[in-house]
Each structure stands twice: as C-alpha cells, then as structure tokens.
Amino acid sequence: MSVDSTVTRVNAGIKRARSGVGVAGPGRTGGRSRPMSKRGSTTLVLLVAPSVLLLALINGYPLVYAALQSVRDGTLIAVGSLVGLDNYVSVLTSERFWSSAGFTIIFTLVGVFGSWAVGLGLALLLHTRVPARGLIKVLLLLPWVVPIVVSSTAWNWLLATPDSPIPQLADALGFGRVLFLADPTLAAITVCVFKVWISFPFMMLMSSAALASVDTTVYEAAEMDGASRWQQFTRMTLPLIARSTYISWILMTIFCVNDFPTIYLLTGGGPVDATNSLIVLAYRTVFQDFQTGQGVAIAFLMTITLVFVSVLLFRQMKKVDTP
C-alpha cells in the first residue's frame, strides 16, 4: 500500500467523522437532525438579540464615527469640514504611505512565516520524548508571556548603544561597532527578528494543539508502507494540521499589521522611517501631525486589506475542509 492510499484512507476517515458517520454507518436518524420549531427559533433569536445589539453598539458606533472622520478635514479637537475622498487621495499619493506599506508587508511576512516555522519546529521537537519537556515548554513561552515593554527594554539594552553587549561582542569579533538600531537596514532586520522572537510561542502552542489531535496510528501505517520522515511531514502532517495552520496565519497577520508597541517601543519608526509601519504612521498622522482625517483613512485602508487577506485565507481553509 502506497503513501497516497494511506492519505486517502485517513481523509476518508476524517470525512466520516465530520459528517457524523461512524464505522458502522449513520445512526437511527440517518445523520440528519430534526429541524428546529418556529417557537424554538424565536426563543433563540430573543436570547441572542441583546448580545448582538450590545456588540453592534460597542463596535458599530466607533466604526461609523471613524468613517465620518476619514472624510473630514478635522483635528483632535475640531470636527472639520467635509472633504469627501480627498484624505484617501492624499494618503494614496504619499510616498511616505507606500514606504510604510512596504515595510508593513515585509514585517508581516517575516512575522507570520518566521514565527510559524520556528513554532512548528519546536512543536515537532516537543512532540517527541524530550527530557523535561514540560519545563522546556514553559521556558519557551516566556517571550510571549513577558510584557512587551519589558522585552523591548531588554532588547534596547542589548542593541541600542555602542556600549551595549551585542555591539561590543561584534567589535570583539572584528565586525566593528555595529549600531543595530541606527542603521536603517539593520534596524528593519532587528525589528523583524524581535517580532519572530515574541510571536513564536503562540505558533508553537497552535501547532502543538494541532499535532496532539493527529492519530499516531497514521504514522505507524505510513512507516509500514515505507514512507520516509520527510514524506510523512509534507504529505501527512502538514495536510492534517492545515486548518489550524490557516487559523494561526490569519490571527498572526492581524497581530502583525496592527502591532504598534513592538515597533514604537523598539525604534519609534526610525531611523529615517525605515521601520515605520502603517499603524505607526497612522498614529503619527493623528497625534503628532494632528491630521485626524488622513490618519483614520490610513487605518481604514489597513482594515480593508486585512479583511481581504482574511477572506483569502478562509477560502483556503474551506478548501482544506472540503474532502
């Protein structure tokens, strides 16, 4: 029996489990549930309505108010006059916006896939019989558990000045006094590495939970069929945890695009706007340049992009769920 037949058999079992059909076939109801009565539906709507209304008021009002601000030439203390889409035009024709958008894309790609690769690798390692596995897992969670202010302060102490330990070590190794947060390229690399550092524990937890749900007999059958470890990983492990992977990518994409403290506390968006992301640019536009309309317009453009990316990933996840 080949690896493909093993994967097909596993997918067939997953399909039966999702449809509520066991080995012996469907139950007495034939896998169908009785439709809810009209009275039950009304009761359900009445119970859910207060929560839905509260969420709509909490989230809907700020969203509508922000949308109105994005089409006005206002400040923090004045509503301003209606300017239509001029704020969006000004933002989209700004070189600073596209520079920040470029760094945001790089920061997000490195943050998502870098933390996922590290987290998945550690999850696979901890899935084996490692001594003191519980203690190691707790220690690996520290970068995510420690407050971002503490982590950024520690990295500033390690990298920021010529007298910091890492620049001194680089000088001792013959590289000179490397100023990691003063050089634009090195600052961008440092911020991306820092994001991976504080994010990989989340990916590790997501991957560990997904791996724990995979039946070990699948791998035993694959080994009997002669599948190598790489074949098991690429053709069995990754497809079986694909749903959890897409969910973690969606969440981490949102976290990276909206990540303000990581960049602002480490570099403040500098040097010379080299690490200026869209969320930092929106903050500076509103609270330093006092151009509320353009700052909110940037935030709305970010939201639209996030929705688009999330929809694409959700569609990919739906393809995975479809047998």
Automatic annotation (TrEMBL):
Key words of the record: Cell membrane, Membrane, Transmembrane, Transmembrane helix, Transport
Pfam family, one: BPD_transp_1
Protein name: Sugar ABC transporter permease
Subcellular location: Cell membrane
Transmembrane listed as a keyword: yes
Keyword check for Nucleotidyltransferase: no
Membrane topology: Multi-pass membrane protein
Spans through the membrane: 44-68, 97-126, 138-158, 178-198, 246-266, 295-314
PROSITE patterns named among the record's database cross-references: ABC_TM1
Protein family per UniProt: Belongs to the binding-protein-dependent transport system permease family.
UniProt source species: Georgenia halophila
Stored InterPro entries: MetI-like (IPR000515), MetI-like_sf (IPR035906)
Residue span, ABC transmembrane type-1 domain: 101-313
UniProt cross-references to Gene3D superfamilies, sorted A to Z: MetI-like
